[in-house]
Amino acid sequence: MLALAVSAVPVGSAARAPADGIAPRGLALVMVDRAGCSFCDAWRREILPGYGAHAIGRALPLAVVPIDGPWPDGLVLDRAPQITPSFLILRDRVEIARLEGYPGARHFWAALDDLILAARPRGTG
Question: What ranges make up the beta strands (E) of 1-125?
């Protein structure tokens, strides 16, 4: 596991999370982007405007972090992101699932939902 320590750009759900956009407890989504990334731009155009209204968006407060940082303090990741965009699902600031790349608006929510289901502890519904 890779532990990262620095600060992020918060996006949405700020009332429920600290300044870096990621609560110390619970689930969160970190979108890793890079300047000039056309897939990141497409995600921002196609998904970000409605993110907070979607059921997954309400369940996963969002923070957008540049691939080169700065990163929020206290994150524990399986490995440093190399692909943009990458979507890191965190539980209690620890990575539990990752989607690398943007599959397009048609498939994004289903892919994220599949990751959430796969990461759910056994015995929970």
Answer: 2-4, 9-10, 27-33, 62-66, 75-77, 86-91, 94-100
Which residue range(s) make up the domain with 46?
Answer: 2-119
Q: What angle (nearest 5°) sits at the alpha carbon of residue 93, between those of residues 6 and 117?
A: 140
The pLDDT value recorded for residue 25 is 81
Taking only the tens place, the pLDDT of each residue in 17-48 is 454 667 778 889 999 999 999 999 999 999 99
Q: Is the Cβ–Cβ distance between 108 and 43 less than 8 Å?
A: yes
Q: How many domains does the chain have?
A: 1
For residue 49, which phi and psi values (nearest 5 degrees)? -60, -35
Is residue 125 situated within a structural domain? Answer: no
Q: How far apart are CA 33 and CA 54, in angstroms?
A: 21
Beta partners for 87? Answer: 31, 99
So what's the pLDDT on residue 8?
37
